[in-house]
Amino acid sequence: xxxxxxxxxxxxxxxxxxxxxxxxxxxxxxxxxxxxxxxxxxxxxxxxxxxxxxxxxxxxxxxxxxxxxxxxxxxxxxxxxxxxxxxxxxxxxxxxxxxxxxxxxxxxxxxxxxxxxxxxxxxxxxxxxxxxxxxxxxxxxxxxxxxxxxxxxxxxxxxxxxxxxxxxxxxxxxxxxxxxxxxxxxxxxxxxxxxxxxxxxxxxxxxxxxxxxxxxxxxxxxxxxxxxxxxx
Length: 232
Fold this sequence. Notes:
This protein is α+β, with helices and mostly antiparallel strands. It has helices at residues 6-18, 23-35, 37-55, 64-73, 85-99, 105-112; strands at residues 127-132, 138-144, 148-153, 163-171, 178-182, 188-192, 202-211, 222-227, 230-231.
């Protein structure tokens, strides 16, 4: 199968951005993005196009029942409390704090997943990246500031005890991925942001599964996930 053909490349990129490419197919496409810059570029183009459409959509305030269902699913209450207005208000406040500052409809959809993460609250956050699994569940949330990368692991992450997870820059020019360090398996972690981060065009960030201690040869061992950077 020629993944670089114009029709197939664009069809897969569109499905990936929309979230309809799931399971093993989504994993394969994530690896293709790392291997072939044209596929990564096509994905970025579709992301920009669809985000542009989202910006033209007028915002709609969700119905109270929608907020209450979100509240219950996120565990803000242990049992249905449809008449508990105080609890509902707190949940609504947390959700909107998580999505504040994101400019596109696509980013808003992703940001809803952030509400099950304690706020990182990086004061100089300039960019955001969300790492999701094949079921679009949030595993890590990253806030990129001037000098640091603040990372929060979510409760959704079921980490392997005998392995580590490593974060990589995927350069848009096709050069080899560049390691940023190991990701936390629980809680929060702050990594130093290398100067190179602002000096090259980044196609995506990638997460790989590695032996304990990180990659043994300076290259990703098994690429699990990729994520695009969102500028705040």
